[in-house]
Amino acid sequence: MLRFKSLGSGSSGNATLVEAQSGVHTTRLLIDCGIRLRDLEARLIEAGTCAEDLDAIFITHEHGDHISCARSFIKRYSTPLWMSQGTWLAVCDDAWLPHQHLLNLARDGNTIEIGALQALPFTVPHDAREPLQLRCSDGNRHLGLATDLGHPSAHVVSSLQSCHALLLEANHDPEMLQASSYPSFLKQRVAGPWGHLANHAAAELLARVKHKDLNFVLAAHLSERNNTPELARASLSKAMQCAPLDIAVADPITGSAWVQV
Questions:
Q1: Closest by CA position to 249, among listed 213, 190, 137, 227
Q2: In CATH, 2-252 is 3.60.21.10
Q3: What is the rounded distance in angstroms from the CA atom of residue 199 to the CA atom of residue 205?
Q4: Rounded Cα–Cα distance for residues 60 and 18 (Å)
Q5: Which residue of 4, 69, 192, 205 lies most exposed, with the fewest beta carbons within 10 A?
Q6: How many CA atoms lie within 13 Å of 122's alpha carbon, on the beta-carbon side?
Q7: pLDDT tens digit string along 161-214?
Q8: Residues 212 and 242: beta-carbon distance below 8 Å
Q9: d(CA 195, CA 7)
Q10: Residues of 156-175 as b/e, b for ≥16 C-beta within 10 angstroms?
Q11: Burial code of 213-240, b = ≥16 C-beta within 10 A, e = fewer?
Q12: Which SS3 state, helix, strand or coil, does residue 192 take?
């Protein structure tokens, strides 16, 4: 059995818990640690587990809303940590070096075996050193996670084919972004090909990976200022050819309910 739960998604912090069960054993992978440590600990307990139960942490890239408490977490719990070499080079300093023994380097296309879970990293176009997103499987069902990407590259589209569930960025509405109080350089960054997916771009990606066995889509990493759940649902539901309320939206604080893939 494969299931996942967003513990929070947005510019204020990101973390997603993925579980794969084989017999009586459950493998737990935390993707990103962008939430304050004490809040992350509390949200794991609310999810029915705890920090000590995690088998590994995967960091997608070095931006603070994805990695902010990772060092504190592994210092406290000695949890094995996965990230790309580029991400490691971007964050490595004297404070990280005592925990280097917990580090495992991830690469695009190289499957990571963690208990009953297989995690396949793939590169995405984003303004980070070597950002990776993930395709997770228990050997039967497949979950695709794709946030923090400026456009749906051919590699991203290929990596998300035949998934049964998706956590997909729908970051902003272009008109809201351009009308916002963001400075011009930030608007250009967010809307650029190495920034974040607009609603229509997320819908384009979804349309290119949609198939008859894709049964759940969670919109994630919505901008609190430049998007609304209603706008994200409207775009993605057109691509899925479903009702808007059939598209779930991850909350910045409460995340999502558990989803069985």
A1: 227
A2: no
A3: 10
A4: 14
A5: 192
A6: 20
A7: 999 999 999 999 999 999 999 999 999 999 999 999 999 999 999 999 999 999
A8: no
A9: 23
A10: beebbeebbbbbbbbbbbbe
A11: ebebbbbbbbbeebbebebbbebbbbbb
A12: coil
117: pLDDT strictly greater than 90: yes
Cβ contacts of residue 244 below 8 Å, gap of 6+? 230, 233, 234, 237
Enumerate residues 6+ apart whose C-beta is below 8 A from 125. 149, 150, 151, 153, 156, 193, 194
Q: How far apart are CA 204 and CA 5, in angstroms?
A: 24
Q: Is the predicted pLDDT of residue 46 greater than 90, yes or no?
A: yes
pLDDT value of position 23:
87
Q: DSSP letter at 111?
A: P
Q: Is 68 helix (H, G, I), strand (E, B) or coil?
A: coil
Q: Dump pLDDT digits (tens) for 53-107.
A: 999 999 999 999 999 999 999 999 999 999 999 999 999 999 999 999 999 999 9
Q: What ranges in the chain are assigned the alpha helix state H?
A: 37-46, 64-67, 70-77, 85-91, 154-159, 174-179, 184-191, 199-209, 229-240
Q: Which tokens go with 130?
A: 């070597």
| Whether pLDDT at 216 is above 90 | yes
> Domain spans of the chain?
2-252
> Per the structure block, which two tokens stand in for 96?
């990280």
